[in-house]
Specification:
Blueprint lengths: L7 E8 L11 E9 L2 E7 H11 L3 E12 L1 E6 L8 H7 L3 H17 L2 E6 L6 H11 L6 E4 L3 E4 L10 E4 L1 H15 L3 E5 L18 H13 L3 E8 H9 L4 E7 L2 H10 L2 E3 L8 H7 L3 H9 L1 H14 L14 E2 L2 E2 H14 L1 H7 L2 H7 L16 E4 L13 E6 L2 E5 L4 E2 L2
Parallel strand pairs: 1-4, 5-6, 6-7, 8-9, 10-11, 11-12, 12-13
Antiparallel strand pairs: 1-2, 2-3, 4-16, 14-15, 16-17, 17-18, 18-19
Length: 418
């Protein structure tokens, strides 16, 4: 069976990863020897083939001139997303067993589109932990999952309507909220510190946590060795959080040069989710209400200005779609379309490759296992026809996916792990 792990040597490829920004040039006419779940060797094809042959039997897979990169990492994922409107109401109505199947299907689609790792930042009923276990056990096909569990919100705060958030109040309440997520198995903590696009009775610039509540979240999470990311729009709220040690900002709709300079100085990353304010077609498909459509699209120009400010200040930006990673959108999937927006709006192809692979992996603290194509790393790889250093749109041509040493998609043979 094609999905079984075995010794495999990938040939006919050019290997490239985010280390290109650090002087590691693409390797042309390369071979990659994969043994079990991990990469055994990378180098010129004759050398790697000889080494693999000396070690025993292997299967050679010719990638026919493809560019081979690490799989993409989507840092803003909701596999149980339910926005206001008909589409979201259908998800909210799912029972526990139905939700599990729904999320598993989304995980499979996510992996097959070339996203081999996700960071979930609010999922319903802690189903993400069960899904992570199922994927790790091999019962379900899907990406590696790093998750925040339920996002923490104040009573009535952003996203309070669903079971993907936990309402907390007061410093003690938010401390308990952090500990509950850690107890469930959270890799990080997500907190809503301002209003957002999907909340009818709030605005993007609504402050939602008091200083002692914000401090309680960050201090408690850091004490447990977890980073904190925050849904946040307005600069004053973000500045306060960054001063207190916030590790990452989601969206950042209304940044300023002052706050982006502070983020760069403190090492606070930004997941800009540019798609959120330029996805009218997606909203049409889900039937979101007019108030949400207008709030989103009207925020688009300022959102893009904020992103430009972050780039100018040297803030590290990371790929995150908010839309389901696999969602077909404007001729590709949401993950690739977001990365294209990031690249076209000032990041450029080489830095976009980094922002979609090695950058997120380093934020997650997983660089010992993921993010590059080199010996010892997990074999989470994708192959495409286009050169990602020439144009980020090359990711539209992904036609082959490997996860942990298993080939899960190969368009040339018609194989996929469906």
């Amino acid at each position: 069976m094609n999905a079984e792990r075995s010794a495999i040597v990938l040939t006919g490829c050019t290997v490239v990863d985010g280390r290109v920004l650090e002087g590691v040039a693409p390797l042309v006419d390369a071979a990659v020897w994969v043994r079990g779940e991990r990469i055994e060797a990378v180098g010129p094809a004759p050398e790697v083939l000889a080494a693999a042959g000396a070690a025993g039997d292997f299967r050679q897979v010719d990638l026919a001139g493809a560019y081979l990169t690490p799989g993409l990492v989507n840092m803003h994922t909701h596999l149980s997303l339910s926005l206001p409107g008909q589409g979201g109401d259908a998800v909210k109505g799912l029972g526990a067993y139905e939700l599990a199947h729904y999320m598993a299907d989304g995980a499979r689609r996510t992996l097959l589109c070339g996203v081999t790792t996700v960071r979930c930042v609010a999922e319903k009923d802690h189903a993400d932990f069960a899904l992570r276990r199922a994927i790790t056990s091999g019962w379900v096909t899907g990406p590696r999952i790093f998750t925040a569990g339920q996002a923490l919100v104040c009573t009535g705060g952003h996203g309070h309507e669903g079971t993907d958030t936990l309402e907390c109040d007061g410093a003690d309440g938010f401390r308990r909220g952090v500990r509950r997520q850690v107890k469930a198995g959270a890799d990080l903590i997500k907190v809503m510190i301002s209003g957002g696009i999907a909340g009818e009775h709030e605005s993007i610039h609504t402050r939602q946590l008091f200083p002692d509540e914000l401090a309680a979240v960050i201090e408690t999470a850091h004490a447990w060795g977890r980073k904190v990311t925050a849904h946040a729009g307005p600069a004053p709220v973000i500045a306060e959080a960054v001063e207190r040690g916030l590790d990452c900002v989601e969206h950042g709709y209304q940044l300023t040069p002052e706050v982006t300079a502070l983020m760069a100085e403190r090492g606070t990353a930004l997941v800009p989710t540019l798609l959120v304010t330029r996805c009218e077609e997606f909203f049409d498909q889900l039937g979101v209400p007019e108030w949400m459509r207008r709030r989103s699209l009207d925020a688009g120009p300022r959102h893009l200005e904020s992103y430009a400010m972050a780039l100018a200040a040297g803030v590290e930006v990371l790929l995150g779609s908010d839309m389901p990673p696999f969602w077909q959108f404007e001729g590709t999937n949401a993950s690739v379309r977001e990365l294209e927006h990031m690249s076209e709006s000032g990041l450029g192809p080489a830095r976009a490759l980094y922002a979609g692979t090695l950058g997120p992996v380093r934020w997650l603290g997983a660089e010992a296992d993921l993010g590059t194509v080199e010996p010892g790393k997990c074999a989470d790889l994708i192959a495409m026809d286009g050169d990602p250093l020439t144009a980020t749109s090359a990711f539209r041509s992904v036609r082959w996916v490997m996860s942990g040493g298993r080939i899960v998609r190969d368009d040339r043979t018609g194989w996929n792990a469906s």
